[in-house]
Amino acid sequence: MYHPRELYPSLGTGYRLGHPQPGADSSFPPALAEGYRYPDLDTSKLDCFLSGIEAAPHTLSAPPPLPLLPSLGPETAPPPPEALHSLPGVSLSLENQELWKEFSAVGTEMIITKAGRRMFPACRVSVTGLDPEARYLFLLDVVPVDGARYRWQGQHWEPSGKAEPRLPDRVYIHPDSPATGAHWMRQPVSFHRVKLTNSTLDPHGHLILHSMHKYQPRIHLVRATQLCSQHWGGVASFRFPETTFISVTAYQNPRITQLKIAANPFAKGFRENGRNCKRERDARVKRKLRGPEPVATEACGSGDTPGGPCDSTLGGDIRDSDPEQAPAPREAASAPAPPCGGPSAEAYLLHPAAFHGAPSHLPARNPSFPEAPDPGRPAPYSAAFLELQPGPGGSAYQAAPSVTSFAPHFIQGGPFPLPYPGPGGYLDMGSKPMY
DNA sequence: TCTTCTCGCACTTTTGAAAAGT
DNA sequence: AACTTTTCAAAAGTGCGAGAAG
């Protein structure tokens, strides 16, 4: 399994985040950053917060690259999930892990389009160990795995040069957020509505990725009474190595295409026994060339295939009833959190990685925060004091004991006027490039 | 010339409003 | 009258393949 020491060797044995390194964030033009801002946000309010962040005296150290995940291929076995958190007893498991592993074994590819494309498989997790009465937010973001661009070489993916400059992070907020622990634990939490785009000026707030790059989705759990709550109970961040994927604008590996068609109900029409199977499409084209089609055609195999209908050897029927397609109870969605001005959950929403020792594009404490009113309290949050907790292996990650070094930040008061994109929305974190 | 991206197509599933039933 | 279930059309989500762009 991954240990934080292996994850972020540059952080040292205590995984502490250091002072900024010269030029760490200098490659991203501020003017360009404007275009990445969340489109529907009240940017003046956001700017108030972001400007404070960017003026912070401390930024994180140079980007600790994510650990090198096993190269995509059938021979690799993904390591167990890894998590960083301060929510004791909380564990997360990947519900559709088998499906993910099936894709991972071939080398998962995710289509990205200008308009935004959903992920398939989607991240669907079940969570345990939450306080049934407390409220939590569920977030998802996607981060680059390494600094390379990839190309398909006919049989496998291989690095082909340096990665494009990292785009500002956006976070997808689960539509049920905030909801009680009981709600989250009642049924698996699905992120099937997340959309990926390659449009750097995307107006819809989808997660922006570069094509031909390797990415890793991460799921963040934040304890807060509401998005703008001033009372925090901690955060937890999880990632599952088998969910790593390469973003593409068109599938490169035909085996991935087969898997997607077999597993995704929306692609049912492309299965061998579907009306849109290649044989049927070819037949339609021929008929078109010959003249008008007198009657509707039957699915392939019904008449011209000996032994009955064509049968997909990949067996997609079981997956058709994939519960991730079913809408989850919307306990909290009907009562969206109102915009408000407290620090806290937004801080995590804006820069979740800062709480987990992730890359340096994330800022340190907002200097406009007032100091802790109670001298007995630990020092206000600063990512520079973040310590990461290793956890045991297994498919579900057990949360480590509470990390006290940053939790106090969340009970700080201060100006923090943040717009709320609403349940199911995306929040632009306005981050700086990783490379 | 090669690789990558965009767009329109035909198909399936999902969604939500209206109608029907209890 | 209020609530639940069913129906159905529109919207959204798929991969394919041709052609454009770099």
Automatic annotation (TrEMBL):
Where does the record place the region Disordered? 271-343, 359-381
Here the segments flagged for biased composition (Low complexity) are 324-335
Look up the domain of life of the source: Eukaryota
Write the protein's name.
T-box transcription factor TBX6
Which species expresses this protein natively? Peromyscus maniculatus bairdii
Record GO terms (molecular function)? DNA-binding transcription factor activity, RNA polymerase II-specific; RNA polymerase II cis-regulatory region sequence-specific DNA binding
Composition bias of kind Basic and acidic residues appears in 271-283
Q: What is the name of the gene encoding this protein?
A: Tbx6
All residue ranges annotated as the T-box domain in the record: 94-272
Q: Which GO terms describe its cellular component?
A: chromatin; nucleus
Listed GO biological process terms? anatomical structure morphogenesis; cell fate specification; mesoderm development; positive regulation of DNA-templated transcription
Keywords on this record? Developmental protein, DNA-binding, Nucleus, Transcription, Transcription regulation
Keyword set includes Metal-binding: no
Specify where it is mainly localized. Answer: nucleus
Subcellular location, in the record's words?
Answer: Nucleus
Q: Which SUPFAM superfamilies match?
A: p53-like transcription factors
